[in-house]
TrEMBL record:
Organism domain of life: Eukaryota
Pfam families the UniProt entry points to: LRR_1 (PF00560)
Annotated organism of origin: Sciurus vulgaris
Chain positions covered by the region annotation Disordered: 1-44
Keyword tags: Leucine-rich repeat, Repeat
Entry keyword annotation includes Ribosomal protein: no
This protein's name: Leucine rich repeat containing 23
Length: 220
């Protein structure tokens, strides 16, 4: 069985009711947002360069799965949370990865992820990202870019993406979210941004939209 067959058959576990979760976590999210803002004011964006290394990869890799024709195996899950990383270029060589957590680092560039065409799940929260732009990733279903410095919603065009988290960024206007390219998107998290209107949110399949803590005019 090929990687593509495995990915086509992949069905994520049912998610708990979003409304209940949001009610329970509302206070926690507010506190996290305030902490993030304070940290941004206290610390400089200049960090000592720390590139991803092979040793870090060995420590973070897990979940051995079949690849290709089923005769070979590779690790498909990677956890690199809170490693102070500034560079993940090494990921270009790990093309079989499906689950990647690179949150709580100092990353400004996610372009190496463009080589991970089997990626299903991505968490890149709490970095120094100014954009969530990536090449189209055909199997990506869940992506989180919360608590970064992202200013727009351009360059997000993954056909199987179901859940997108952009809370706690600096987004003033939603642009570039093409309903034809985001035909599976059902959950969009935009709390804690600087949105002034809901223009650009023309996503017919959307079921869950979170917009609290923005600068929205009730008339828009």
């Amino acid at each position: 069985m090929s990687d593509e067959d495995d990915l086509d058959d992949y069905e994520p576990e049912p998610e708990p009711d979003e409304e209940d979760l949001e009610k329970e976590d509302d206070e926690k999210e507010t506190e996290e947002w305030e902490d993030y803002r304070k940290e941004g004011e206290e610390f400089s964006e200049e960090w000592m360069p720390i590139p991803l290394t092979e040793n870090m990869m060995k420590e973070g890799l897990s979940l051995l799965c079949k690849t290709g024709n089923g005769l070979a195996h590779a690790y498909v899950k990677l956890e690199l949370k809170d490693r102070d990383l500034t560079d993940i270029n090494l990921l270009r060589s790990y093309i079989h990865l499906r689950y990647v957590d690179i949150s709580e680092n100092h990353l400004t560039d996610l372009s190496p992820l463009n080589f991970l065409t089997h990626l299903l799940w991505l968490k890149a929260d709490s970095n120094q990202l100014r954009t969530a732009r990536l090449n189209e990733l055909p199997y990506l279903q869940i992506a989180s870019f919360a608590y970064n410095q992202i200013t727009d919603t351009e360059g997000i065009s993954h056909p199987r993406l179901g859940s997108l988290d952009l809370k706690g960024n600096h987004i003033h206007m939603v642009t570039g979210l093409d309903p034809q390219k985001l035909s599976s998107l059902h959950t969009l998290e935009l709390r804690g941004n600087q949105l002034e209107s809901t223009l650009g949110l023309n996503l017919p399949k959307l079921k869950n939209l979170f917009l609290e803590t923005n600068d929205l005019d009730p008339k828009t």
